[in-house]
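Hey,
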Amino acid sequence: MDIPQIDRSNYLKGLLITAKVDKQLTDPEKKIIKQFSDKLGFSSDFYEEIISSLLANEYIKEEPIVFSNTEIARSFIEDGLNLALADDKLDAKELKWLTATAKANSIDESWVNKKLNELKSSSRLFGNTEFALYSLI
């Protein structure tokens, strides 16, 4: 699938917001965001700059993101949940933000909860994880 540039930008922005809302940025989160940044075609310099100032960056608004189609939105929600689970503790703020983004994209909260339960029950080896986005690109 050819993902529009605006959706690519919003995908990365959404992952950054997911990592930021709990006011912590862990090494596993950084690693995952780097993988997405590379896959989405962003430069290493851009990644380094945004990561270094992420927690203090007031200009990244935490409003739900709307994607151009539901397939991209579902992929994002799944990958966002994976990112939120990367530090082995899902913060309520992360889940609330991802659920609000799902709702903004006409995705039912029950789908989010089902996907969350699936991800919690699966073994997550992030170095070997095939993220949902990868099936779209």
